[in-house]
Amino acid sequence: MARHKKMQRPEDDEPGLDISSLIDVCFLLLIYFLVTTQIVKKEQELDMAMPSSMPSDTPPTITPMLITLESNGVISIKTDGPEEVVEQDPDIRTLPVLVERLEIYKSIADNAATKPIVQIKVDGESEQQRLIDILNALNRTEITTVTFTDILDDTDRT
């Protein structure tokens, strides 16, 4: 009787790709980047004094600066006079005009021997990054007494 040699299927002859070492390298790279990545300091911690839940009975000796952030990214300020638009381009993240006005306001408060007080009014539809830009500007000028407000005009209450 003749011996029959078994023929191997063509699928068994094709080379395979072992990806277990590739997965190990991917995990090592992931761990490396997680360990070596540093969080930017200004985004990690902003030294701000948040207000208490009870309003103070004593009025401040200096008029607080009101910073308004509208939904389209426009930033305006108001102290004693009329409201003034200081930043219109939402792509500029450093807010140079706002920083300049905050430095002037801080120097006025320092001359009056009081702490500068800033109120921030934010439209609910505005981008969160724009608010972070405002907080970074306050941090650059070392203004730490900040409060958020929901001041409504008479037209908003109807």
The run of helices and strands is HHHEEEHEHE
The helix fraction, in percent, is 25-40%
Count up the helices. Answer: 5
Low-confidence stretches: 154-158
Summing up helix and strand content along with how strands pair, one would put the structural category as alpha/beta
Which architecture name of the domain at 44-148 does CATH use? 2-Layer Sandwich
**Beta strand %:** 5-15%
Gyration radius over CA? 30 Å
CATH C-level name of the domain at 44-148: Alpha Beta
**Total DSSP E strands:** 5
CATH topology of the domain at 44-148: Nucleotidyltransferase, domain 5
Major β-sheet profile:
5 strands, mixed
Question: Can you give the mean pLDDT?
Answer: 80
Structural shape: elongated
- Give, in spatial order, the strands making up the sheet with the most strands: 3-2-1-4-5
Q: Report how far the terminal alpha carbons are from each other.
A: 104 Å
Walkthrough of the structure:
With 158 residues, this protein is α/β, with parallel strands linked by helices. It has a domain of 105 residues: Nucleotidyltransferase, domain 5 (2-Layer Sandwich). 34% of the residues lie in helices and 15% in strands. It contains 5 helices and 5 strands, in the order H-H-H-E-E-E-H-E-H-E. It has a 5-stranded mixed sheet, with helices on one face. Strand 1 and strand 2 form a beta hairpin. Helix 4 packs across helix 5. The protein starts with 9 loop residues before the first helix and ends in a 10-residue tail after the last strand.
Quick summary:
With 158 residues, the chain is of the alpha/beta class. The protein has helices spanning 10-13, 20-36, 41-44, 96-111, 128-140, and strands spanning 65-69, 75-78, 84-87, 117-122, 145-148. The protein has a five-stranded mixed sheet with strand order 3-2-1-4-5, covered by helices on one side.
